[in-house]
Amino acid sequence: MSKTCNGKVWAIACRDLKTYFASPIAYIVIAGFLTLMGLMFFSNLSHFFVQQLQYKQFGMGKGVSLTEGIIRPLYGNMNVILLLLVPLITMRLFAEEKKLQTIQLLMTAPITIGQMVMGKFLAALMLVGIMLGLTLVYPLILFIYGNPDLGPIFTSYLGTLLLSGCYVGMGVMFSSMTENQIVAGVLTFAAGLLFWLINWLSQFAGAVIGDVLDYLSIIQHYNNFSQGILDSTDVIFYFSFIGISLFLTHRVLDSYRWR
Length: 259
Hints:
Largest sheet: none
C-alpha cells in the first residue's frame, strides 16, 4: 500500500516538474538565479582578496577565513534571492489547475488530497534542489584554489534547502487559495518576508513575546546552519513549519472539494 502511495506522489511530482521545463518558467528562474549568484560569488571573492591583501600589507594577521569572507555571505544572499524567486515557482501549482478547471480531474482521480499536495510540494522543491545543485561549482572553485571548511558548506546547503522548503510550503498553501497566480505569488512573498523579519519586532515586545517572535523567524533558525552547526531544534522547526503549511493546504483543498 505504501509503495502505491509513494508511486502516486512521485507521479504527480514528476508530472509537475516536467511541466516547469515544458514552459519558460524553469529556464527563466534558473537563469536569473545563476546570474545573480554568479555576480555575488565573484563580488564576494574580489572583496575577500582585497581584504586579505590589506591584512598582509598592514601585518594584521591571517585575515578573514573563507567561511566568514565568502561562504556565509554567499549563502545568506542566496536565501534572499530564493525568497524572491520561489513564489514564481509555486504560484502556478494549484492556481493554474483552478483556472484551467483541471483541479476537478485531480479531485476525482484515485489519489488522496494528501498525495496531491505532497506531489506538488516535491515538484517545486526538486526544482529548487536543481538550482542549488548548479551552485556547487562555487565551493568546488574554493576547494581547487583554497582550503575552505566542509562543515559550513554542507550545513549551509542543508539549511538553505530546509528554508526553501518553508517558502515552498507557503507557496503551495497560497496557490491552493486562489486561481490568480499573481495573487498567490505576492502572498507567498509577503508571508515569507513577514516570517523573515518578524524577529525585528522582538525588540519592541516583552521578554516572553520577544522570545516567541525570535523563534518564529525562519531566518533566525538558519544562523546555526551558516556557522556549521547542526541543531535538532532548527531542523524540527523547519519540518514543523513545512508540515503546518501542507496541513493547511490540505484543509483548503478539502473545503474546496465540498463546495
